[in-house]
Amino acid sequence: MGTKGREIVGLDVERLIELLNKAYADEWLAYYQYWIGAKVVKGRMKGQVVAELEEHAADELRHAGMVLDRIMQLEGTPLLKPEDWYKVSNCGYDVPEDPHVESILKQNIKGEQCAIDVYNKLLEATKDKDPLTYHMALEILKDEVEHEDDLQALLEDLHERGR
Ligand code: FE
Ligand code: FE
Ligand code: MG
Fold first, then answer.
1. Of 91, 121, 122, 128, which has the maximum CB count within 10 A?
2. Is the CB of residue 63 less than 8 Å from the CB of residue 27?
3. Which domain holds residue 124?
């Protein structure tokens, strides 16, 4: 990033890079959570659930790229080792030991609710201080809200049909 581009950021840039790296770790773990979930999931409405999980996996990977681009622009270093993802992540990783549709959906809903908090906090931290990170966080938050909604709708559908 150019000197001026970094200068206009009205908050501690190193601290901001730290927050971004934490979100970066979340995105990779969310990506894998969805990706592996789509492979192992079993049960009713499987086809529909797999399609949604795969779509969300692609979104999380795209988010990781968006966050990385901003880290690089700010002249930060993105996390280089996957082992660091676990260490710094806000939302962690839920091992999908129970492959049943309901349990996979619940794990991912929990992940989305955490992601919504993360980006909402990033919006608060950057409001009126760093319009570019703010804009990025808003774009991602829109997706995370949609993800939660999609998964909850699937879970409701599953319960309806189970009756
Ligand atoms: Fe995401
Ligand atoms: Fe998401
Ligand atoms: Mg969706």
1. 122
2. yes
3. 11-161
